[in-house]
């Protein structure tokens, strides 16, 4: 077994895809600013958060599966 540390290629690919998902990131950041003072805990930005990561995943998937072939 090798002593080299295994690097997850998905993390690198996610970084390269982030510029393609700027709109979703800005929507999420705007939401977090809007609900900043919410003490009730009823407001959340779950939808925007998932939209952002869905965009990242959609960008990464073809690259990742090509590398895994």
TrEMBL record:
Which residues belong to any copy of the Ubiquinol-cytochrome C reductase hinge domain?
8-69
Q: Does the keyword Mitochondrion apply?
A: yes
Recorded superkingdom: Eukaryota
Q: Where's it found, cell-wise?
A: Mitochondrion inner membrane
The parts of the chain that form a coiled coil are none
UniProt keyword Transferase, yes or no = no
Mind naming one GO cellular-component term on file for this protein?
mitochondrial inner membrane
Please name the GO terms of the biological process aspect recorded for this protein, alphabetically.
Answer: mitochondrial electron transport, ubiquinol to cytochrome c
- Which Pfam family, just one, is annotated for this protein? UCR_hinge
Q: What membrane topology is annotated for this entry?
A: Peripheral membrane protein
Q: Which cysteines are joined by disulfide bonds?
A: 17-59, 31-45
Per UniProt, the keywords (alphabetical) are:
Disulfide bond, Electron transport, Membrane, Mitochondrion, Mitochondrion inner membrane, Respiratory chain, Transport
**Role:** Component of the ubiquinol-cytochrome c oxidoreductase, a multisubunit transmembrane complex that is part of the mitochondrial electron transport chain which drives oxidative phosphorylation.
Which family, according to the similarity comment? Belongs to the UQCRH/QCR6 family.
Q: What is this protein called?
A: Cytochrome b-c1 complex subunit 6
The source organism is: Solanum tuberosum
| Gene (name only) | LOC102599860
